[in-house]
Amino acid sequence: MLLELLSSPARSLPAAEDVYWQSREDAWWTGPMMANSPETGAPGHFLAEPYLYDVRTSHANSYGSRTYLVYGLANNFSIGVIPVFGYNRVDGGPNSSGVGLGDFVLQAQYQFTHFHDDSWVPSTAIMLQETLPTGKYDRLGNRPADGMGSGVYTTTLGFNAQTYLWMPNGRILRLRLNLTASYSGGTDVHGTSVYGTSNSFHGHARPGNSYGIDVAAEYSLTQRWVLALDGLYNHNGNTRVTGQDLIDPFGGPPLPRDLHMNSGTSDYWGVAPAIEYNWTPNIGVLLGTRVIFGGHHTPSSITPAIALNYVH
To answer: How is the chain classified by DSSP, letter by letter?
Structure first.
């Protein structure tokens, strides 16, 4: 359905002459909570969008910040970085020892097409991200909550699209589509880790590949106020952990044993409703909540978030 909308004419004339058609200049946007924009911005211009959030599950809270910093390097080409920080609180165990650095993301995007009024062509872009394993992931000792990273390099290839539709009342509905595929390498693992290993483990972990889709819509209530909604689906491949651990056979001296663990595949569905307020065309704030309904090998979670969007 969305692909049909993205390839349909952007506007059809109203039957009633007294309908006011909102211009794109009269609609200010911050962007939905999850979906990335295909727009690269003009050379020399940049975007800064810091997020603060709290991932709430039944027995833990993961407080974090994620900041998108994107710079227009050339026509139709942008580069960016995404630093991540976090702090974990868990029931029945020690919390994080302090705020920790998560995995650091490098990003590049090339825009192929640009949307124009009365055109069926949406804005489209190819995005490439490389996640660097800067977050702590193993040798966690008695504080598993200190784990903030994966320990692996991950390459993500994405397709981003965006178009505009004019509703019967003349207001604008902006639509986005993100398709992503992520491929991870492996890493050595020592001791307690984010992969569920014990303090005496030594081995190797390799996360499975993941694939995601995000369909988002934003409705321009007024020039400054916008309602937004993301619909999410994600599939993660099997994560395999192999190595040696120590066991205590009936009180005797610890003995090494081979250990093989498989997480199995996992899937989840979710939504992310949000409201946007824009002071100017270049500055806005978003308040939203991501709700993961859970699924195969995936717990449910609720993530309230606030983001500030600044474009210069």
So the answer is: -HHHHHTS-S----SSTTPPPPPGGG------SSPPP-----TT-EEEEEEEEEEEETTEEEEEEEEEEEEEEETTEEEEEE-EEEEEEETTS---SS-EE--EEEEEEEEEE---TT-SPPEEEEEEEEEE--S--S--TT-GGG----SS-EEEEEEEEEEEEE-TTS-EEEEEEEEEEEEE--EEEESS-TTS--TT-EEEEEPPPEEEEEEEEEEESSSSEEEEEEEEEEEE---EEEEEEEE-GGGS--EEEEEEEE---EEEEEEEEEEEEEEETTEEEEEEEEEEEEBTTB--EEEEEEEEEEE-
